[in-house]
Amino acid sequence: MTDTSKPKKKIVPNKAPMPAQDPIVRAKNFSEVATGYTRETAVAEAQRCLQCKNEPCRQGCPVEVDIPSFLKLAAEGDFSGAIAKIKEKNALPAVCGRVCPQENQCEKYCTLGKKHEPVGIGRIERFCADLELETGVKLPEVAPATGFKVAVVGSGPAGLTCASDLAKLGHKVTVFEALHVAGGVLMYGIPEFRLPKAVVQAEVQNLKKLGVDIDVNSVVGKFSTVDELMEAGFDAVFIGTGAGLPYFMKIPGENLCGVYSANEFLTRTNLMKAYKFPDYDTPIRIGKKVAVLGGGNVAMDAARTALRLGAEESWIVYRRSDKELPARHEEVEHAHEEGVKFALLTSPTRINGDDNGVVKSMECLKYELGEPDASGRRSPVAIKGSEYTMEVDTVVVAIGQGPNPLVPRTTKGLEINKKGNIVASVETGATSKPGVYAGGDVVTGAATVIMAMGAGKIGARSIHEYLQSKKA
Amino acid sequence: MYKILRKEVFSPIIKLMDIEAPKVAKSCQAGQFIILRIDEEGERIPLTIADFDREKGTITIVYQEVGKTTEQLGAMEEGQFIQDFVGPLGEPSHIEKFGTVLVVGGGVGIAPVHPIAKALKEAGNHVVGIIGSRTKDLLFWEDKMRAACTELHVTTDDGSYARKGFGTDVIKEIAETRGKENIALVIAIGPQPMMKACCNVTRELGIKTVVSLNALMVDGTGMCGCCRVSVNGETKFVCVDGPEFDGHQVDWAELSKRGAYFREEEQRSKEKKHTCKCGCGGGK
User: Fold this and answer.
1) Chain A partners of B89 at a C-beta cutoff of 8 Å?
2) Is the CATH number 3.30.420.40 carried by domain B2-90?
3) What is the reported pLDDT for A3?
């Protein structure tokens, strides 16, 4: 018997592990937890890709990266080719390689993953992006100037992606950012130890090289409304202002000192670098025992940050069980490794303070799981008589964020839903207002970086079409 | 970067600066505030707008040196630059023709009441200005306030200048001599104890009183909730819902405790500059 087909590839069943700082050490520093693949590991991991015909991984990528092609180039050691391939679609690969939930996206659909572990697509992406940032970035081609001007409101993942795609199409883009630095949640929210701020700023610099203007300290809705931007000559506007309105529990004692929203806690630490106080002027006060309310990624970030700021104990207080934790599995695992403790099936009913109005304890109730609710998760039911007091001196409320109302409130003719989100088409990002598009958390409610980037991409495509039709 | 175009020293601890910030000057209104950050390591602090010139593109701020950042700002000179200056933030003062309005400015609070007094007078109100300070040396803008108001009363706590006493004395007197029903509104801006004292007086008199709160803030755009305050039992954000609120409904005790939470750190931050090795001479 003769076999004329190509030799069968030897399957490596497991994903190359991500090198990381030791949990005991890293729980006390703000350096990045995952240290990244070496070139050899990246090549070997890319070689695990079967290069299968139907490419199911691609359907899992919200920004449509040609994953098999970049993996093929990486497997051949052609990393500049690989990153160029990624950047055809993804403006922020160093960010995505770190914070995308790949297990729910590209890697979820990986053919290899059916029997074995999927290819470590995100880890290879990160290696390619980091290598390019180290060795010098090659700029993508930019189309000739079209003469159209587009305003992008908000410089988070949605806004940056939209700006990048529009700039490459030859439009003049100005990004308006309310804070003093571009990046949005990538700068104020996601901690340094998961996403180094230098990486974010390197990506922002790349965007500027494409000719994008970034106006920081510019709060749209205050210094200028969306309507005024359009009157001032912008042909289209993309709104990507994110989910910047912290929700509170609405329980007694929430305004005590020592109760922070996760946004405040993380903004002080990440954006304002309070972990370097007093070298940096912004302080943060951390108690011995910290309770973080909530079970999402933001809650994990806050609980892990609390340890690094010197808390002796850091607790996740969540009203469902560990199976329902909305955070990424990897984040929960990291939190466990670092010593974060979990008070599951628990929810506070009141926060108590001392004479100075500073948190000293929290009244909690134990819960059990009942029938599944509308979201499909089993809903928690309070157990009668299970009240107990938890001694804590810092509480971080991480139960979610709503859309920041500044732009929706001040833009005439913009349809808003009951929750305050901007109503925009999933397919096009078009809002009820001609020439105005929106995407990311301000439309969907708090989601992921990559979903926002996907929406930014869709917005850019629609704005381009809109501008072409204006020309005609 | 935002240039310091002019600096005026009212007293060793109260200073004025005109900052070149055309975008803010173009759209700001009385009652709004800005947030500034002096340099890369700086904190973001809110300051209420004291005046603005749309044509020149400038914003006037007046501040009292109470902490690390205001002291550092006080050591800066004309021609130097502030790294970040964002605004206008917060809701503008509600201006309409009310009738007789008492506009009370205490200490450094004289600065933020100025544009409000001006706007109220332009709207046709009889604006009674009441300004005061602890002592003569801390008083400023008497002339400017005289021009902005229909009439002006001046007090010092220690009697070193003008009338000895407090703004509350003047409020009581005016309510008595002219009839409390003839006072449509009181606007009081200054240190928290002063605003609280004004509210205590006007509550008894039944005169609506608006105060401008100065809370700790980080972003100033409603994102972090650091500045939350209970107003009529409801949690509000000073940065986006305010800074002005009905003073009779503000939970002053909570506000004052929240304001004091970082006092130890503020002290550490202030002391830090004496050990600085950057050669700046202690300014940073």
Assistant:
1) 219, 222
2) no
3) 52
